[in-house]
Amino acid sequence: MLSLRVALRYLFSKKSHNAVNLLSIVSVVGVAIATAAMVVVLSVFNGFSDLAKSKLSMIDPDFMVAPAAGKVIADADSLSRMLTGLSGVRLASPIVREQALAVKSDAQMPVTMLGMSSLGADATYLDAITIDGQALVETVDIPGSPLDGFPTMMLSIGVANEIGLRGDVENFVKIYVPKRRGRINTANPATAFRADTLIVAGVFRVDQAEYDADMVIVPLETARRLLDYRHGEATGIQIFLDGKVAGRKVASQLRSMLGDDLLILDREEQQQKSFNMISVEKWVTLLMLVFILIITSFNIISAIYILRVEKQGNMNVLRAMGATPGMIRSIFAWQGRLITTAGGLIGLILGSGLVLAQQQFGLIRLHGGHPDAFTVESYPVRLEPGDLLIIMAIIVVTAILTSFIATFSTKKDN
Q1: pLDDT tens, 338-348?
Q2: Are 106 and 216 found together in one domain?
Q3: What is the signed CA dihedral for 116, 121, 125, 126, rounded to 10 degrees?
């Protein structure tokens, strides 16, 4: 195509005015930086999403059975035993999750109480996320000891900091929950609550706000007793798989067995709000960078306009040789596409190179005042081919838009 060849010649040829060369270089660099920023930012969000998934996997089960309507599974214990016998299921364990109030001396705060069995606690790798004390969720059975009969509990880092406690058998916390059954004496508001005293065995941290901010883990029977649940009732059932089994196959088996009355939620579905928030932040940030790219494209339009003025003599020669107005406009349209595409390709290569270098060598590290402040040493990133395709599509659209504006600006003179 003749107009493309002429545009390529104009792109790489020396101009009579240095301002034209400088503006063209600035335009390419601007597009390259904006494109590289999109690659890096999306890769960082991918990395933090992967980090969140890896942390959630240490406390979330592979699947959670939850009621489709209502809040309680009536016979969760017998259902758990039945599910544990399925091929590929390592353990099925009931849980109770409810809001409560934790009180220690003058300190108190609303908490999310998670009641689980000792087997369920072991399956969640609670040991790996315990940062103080020990991972212990059971009732103390030491005859003759002053602690005998007390249930133990685990505090999230947020609760421990708020009420000023560490993992220590000498620390006790009282848990209050509203009564679910029976009459309430309005003259004595305290009768509206059920309470139990628990020993603080340890403190855990998952690096996820849903857990770290306000969660406490207590023995399953303690949670049932506080909430006055009948024997076998639970709010959910944790399903832990054998590592050799494909999750989709087990999920399909569970759904066909349990029907529509119970939901089967995988790890991401259990924390849908968290991952939705990460996704929204990711694409909102991308839109902001696209806006910056569009602003940068105005430099390209300015460069093309100045080039048109400089090449006016050449255009007259082309007209004399029979070039049509459409061909003249096409030359400058291709000029805009070429500058945008060149900057986009450079940005894709630069951004991908930076992300791959970060993945391989961890060039940018996370620093904090305490060596344990972060669970990863460097910024987590992951280059996603789908993101690169989206960015390439954005570059193509920007190139078309730029060429259209460039063509419009030359139309009146041709």
Answers
A1: 888 999 999 99
A2: yes
A3: 90
Mean pLDDT of 37-55: 88
Tell the burial category of 12 from Cβ atoms under 10 Å away from its Cβ (0-12, 13-18, 19+).
exposed
Q: Which of 206, 241, 270 is the last residue of a domain?
A: 270
Can you tell me which residue has the tokens 């364990």?
A: 93
**Amino acid identity, position 5:** R
- Taking the CA atoms of residue 173, residue 174, residue 175 and residue 176 in that order, the dihedral angle to the nearest 10 degrees is -160
Q: Which residues are within 8 A (CB) of 267 and not within 5 positions of it... i.e. 6 or more apart?
A: 53, 56, 57, 60, 61, 62
Looking at residue 393, what is its pLDDT?
Answer: 94
Q: Which residues contact 199 (CB under 8 A, 6 or more apart)?
A: 140, 147, 150, 151, 152, 153, 169, 171, 172
Residue after which a domain boundary falls, among 270, 289, 311: 270
**Residue 365 to residues 62, 362, 384: CA-CA distances in angstroms?**
31, 6, 21
Whether residue 68 is found in the same domain as residue 116: yes
Overall pTM surpassing 0.85 (yes/no): no
